[in-house]
């Protein structure tokens, strides 16, 4: 008698760990009261025109942390629209507070896994930019399989960019930077914008964070990788 075939799909390796973290009263209040204004349903079809009330260049930032740089970028580029994807409640709450404080209406937020978002909700050739700033480096070798930037992810992300759209990643871990460079240079949908085909100067829209400023003062490097969708 043959054994029944196991039809359960293999569990996807996540590029993040869902940590509870400490959420402040103001962040919780923002999640309770500002989410209806800025939040998007990850299980519903995503229509940018319906979400923003206009058609404009659209940027997706994956893993926006506390959201301050995303809010600042959106404030500096009011003619563009932005969506942020983050899974950690304190960061989402902090971003919502920033959006409300700055009176911004050109940002919307998904609280979901970015890979699933790209697979299921973001149409092909619909984004002007995809930003991945300082993703978890998973620095232990046995955890490298959890890193976000893989050949499969690069091709998925590139397919969601409009022709000429930009994929921009940045990291302060040199070995991750070298892995990203190999992966992204190997994606036939992406063209490295650096003159030497390696790392780029930081574009002006990527603002320096306090953490990055502190790191630079200590001599830590940061590597930007900027690609164009062919």
TrEMBL record:
Listed A to Z, the keywords are: Methyltransferase, S-adenosyl-L-methionine, Transferase, tRNA processing
Q: Which GO terms describe its molecular function?
A: tRNA (guanine(46)-N7)-methyltransferase activity
Annotated binding of S-adenosyl-L-methionine, by residue = 61, 86, 113, 136
Gene Ontology cellular-component terms for this entry are: tRNA methyltransferase complex
Q: What is its EC number?
A: 2.1.1.33
Provide the residue positions that the database annotates as binding substrate.
140, 172, 209-212
Q: Which reaction does it catalyse?
A: guanosine(46) in tRNA + S-adenosyl-L-methionine = N(7)-methylguanosine(46) in tRNA + S-adenosyl-L-homocysteine
Pathway where it operates? tRNA modification; N(7)-methylguanine-tRNA biosynthesis
* Record-linked CDD domains: AdoMet_MTases (cd02440)
What Pfam families would the database entry show?
Answer: Methyltransf_4 (PF02390)
Q: What class of enzyme is it?
A: transferase
The answer to whether UniProt assigns keyword Repeat to this entry is no
Entry similarity comment: Belongs to the class I-like SAM-binding methyltransferase superfamily. TrmB family.
NCBIfam families from the xrefs?
A: tRNA (guanosine(46)-N7)-methyltransferase TrmB
Q: What does this protein do?
A: Catalyzes the formation of N(7)-methylguanine at position 46 (m7G46) in tRNA.
Spell out the protein name for this chain: tRNA (guanine-N(7)-)-methyltransferase
Per the UniProt record, the source organism is: Methylococcus geothermalis
- Upper classification of the organism: Bacteria, Pseudomonadati, Pseudomonadota, Gammaproteobacteria, Methylococcales
Quote the gene name from the UniProt entry: trmB
């Amino acid at each position: 008698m043959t054994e029944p075939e196991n039809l359960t799909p293999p569990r996807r390796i996540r590029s993040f760990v869902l940590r509870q973290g400490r959420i402040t009263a103001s962040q919780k209040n923002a999640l309770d009261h500002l989410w209806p204004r800025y939040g998007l349903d990850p299980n519903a079809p995503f229509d940018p025109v319906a979400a923003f009330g206009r058609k404009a260049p659209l940027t997706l930032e994956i893993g926006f942390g506390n959201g301050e740089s995303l809010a600042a970028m959106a404030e500096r580029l009011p003619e563009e629209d932005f969506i942020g994807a983050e899974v950690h409640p304190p960061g989402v709450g902090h971003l919502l507070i920033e959006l409300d404080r700055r009176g911004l209406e050109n940002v919307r937020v998904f609280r979901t896994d970015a890979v699933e978002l790209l697979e299921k909700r973001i149409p092909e050739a619909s984004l002007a930019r995809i930003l991945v700033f300082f993703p978890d480096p998973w620095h232990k070798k046995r955890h490298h399989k959890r890193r976000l930037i893989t050949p499969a992810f690069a091709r998925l992300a590139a397919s969601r960019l409009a022709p000429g759209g930009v994929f921009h990643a940045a990291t302060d871990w040199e070995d991750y930077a070298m892995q990203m460079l190999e992966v992204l240079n190997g994606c036939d949908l992406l063209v490295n914008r650096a003159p030497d085909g390696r790392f780029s100067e930081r574009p002006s829209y990527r603002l320096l964070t306090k953490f990055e400023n502190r790191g630079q003062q200590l001599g830590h490097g940061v590597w930007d990788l900027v690609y164009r969708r062919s």
